[in-house]
Amino acid sequence: MWGARFTDDSLSFGRPEGLRALALEVPQDFVSLPSSEAMARIGRVEDDVVPTGPLLFFRTEVLAEVELPVYAGLLVGLATAGYRLEPPELADRLRVPRNPEGAPCFVFSYDWRRDLATTAEELFLDEAEARVSQERLEREGSNAEAVRFDLVAHSMGGLLTRYYLRYGARDVLLAEEGIPEVTWEGARRIDRAILVAPPNRGTAKALRNLANGEDSFFLPAYEPALVATWASVPQMFPPPEPGLLRDESGRSVDLDYFDASIWREHRWGPYRPEQDDVIARLLPRVEDPDERLRRLSAFFEASLKRGERFVRALNSPAPPPPRTSIHLFTGDADATLARGRVVRKNSLFQLVFQESSPLHTEPGDGSVTRRSALADLRPAPSRGRLRSSVPWTSIVFLSDRHAGFLSNRVFQDNLLYLLLETSPVRERDDL
Amino acid sequence: MSPRLSRVSRCSLRLCLLLCFLAPSLIGCRAVRTVAAKYPAPDIEQIYLPHAQPTAEAGTEHNPVVVIPGFGGSELRDASGG
Q1: Could you tell me whether strands A361-364 and A334-337 are parallel, antiparallel, or unpaired per DSSP bridges?
Q2: B7 belongs to a structural domain
Q3: Which of A118, A123, A315, A112 is nearest to A232 (CA)?
């Protein structure tokens, strides 16, 4: 699961106020909204939580403090190669040079709980372009050359990037006639999009965390009702495909997990009976338990619908972008959750995911499978030449884990080679 | 069972129970400390290599980069003064 609040400012999930602060606020009027309006509103939900920047370090304490670099590894690598981290205080915090003569490196901070299509609207390339253009004018006396960017995106940031490249800063999930054609609107001023461990074909962990919750040794438990408030989670569901869910005899089970009625019928996620207490803590001002569940359900249903459309929007066929190269770094050395089992108990289906079972795992980086990162369209097990919904320019495989990539020296060497020494597609003679 | 034997038995039982809980706890502590030693508290110097010699340097002729993370930090609006 992706984290916030592992920093010094962290709140305790166990306390009601910590849980409420981590949950996306469920508005009161969602219950009365028609489906299309609820879907439009879900990306605009406001609450009192503001993003503060990338997670530089992962810190936890179990008898002794354990701290691992997360984005600090990547940013220090870029600064070491001469990039100017923006804002400069970020360089100071990481104790790296400010590099005033270097190319700027901006970091996009966003609220990872929110809908990704709406978040794409906030990507600040207009502001960054204006600023770089002004700097060029002051330094060189001319800003005639168009500003072009390189994007480096990790994990869910890769989905956000792909959505932005395909559709630009607009919400295409509401179109009544279905998902519109890919225009590569956002790729217009991007030379290189470098995706690191992106869950392009989703992750079974998102499905598991929403259905059953997440409880690990080092981290506080994420209750399913809490996860149900995060609109980004269904957007990381794997697209339905045969074999993703199997019954006890190994037969593929076709369950539409984007349909909220299935969740309600089989008591998954927020509909698990023991989640009543959690929902009561999330919505303390609503006294009636049925009303509480109704309100969360209305939000959850809209969230699932948007999730389904987002997944379709990212997987619709499209020709490659004309002037943008798309590069992938991914891991394939760790067993990674890829599918689950459906267990019938009385008339209910339970979803079981076992990361320790070879039947449930595939090669990956521990969080994202190799097939998902590749956006592999071949049925599992993949045979023959790669067929992908992403027009990759290059692919590098590394034996590292999901967050470990960012500090991996082999990754950083190849990343810097791409950024600093290769020609962008638009300058190549062979095009 | 005599009262004396019973006291011994109870004592033994308590000792056994104590060992049953204590041993895994001690082993667990040791395992955690081993992990903690492997991933020590923050030392940015270990990531930042002042002696590193990049084969190329990002100058103003290079494109600006935008990093789009997958994990983020956050805080309450009040705490940020917003």
Answers
A1: antiparallel
A2: yes
A3: A112
Judged by a CB distance cut-off of 8 A, whether residue A57 touches chain B is: yes
φ/ψ of A419, rounded to 5, equals -70, -35
Query: Residue with structure tokens 């074909």?
Result: A201
Query: What is the full DSSP assignment across A257-291?
Result: TT-HHHHHHTT-GGGSGGGHHHHHHHSTT---HHH
Q: What is the distance in angstroms between the Cα of B82 and the nearest Cα belonging to chain A?
A: 9
Confidence class of residue A374 from pLDDT cuts 50, 70 and 90?
very high
| Residue A431: CB atoms within 10 Å | 8
Pairs across A and B, CB distance < 8 A: 218
Per-residue pLDDT of A331-350, as tens digits, reads: 999 999 999 999 999 899 99
Residues of B in contact with A77 (CB under 8 A): 47
Residues contacting residue A56 through CB under 8 Å, at least 6 positions apart: A69, A70, A71, A72, A75, A93, A94, B73
Domain carrying residue B10: 1-37
> Looking at beta carbons, which residues of chain B come within 8 Å of A189?
none
- Does residue B20 lie in a domain region? yes
Closest Cα partner for A43 from A105, A108, A122, A114? Answer: A114
ipTM of the complex: 0.93
Domain ranges across chain A: 16-53+107-427
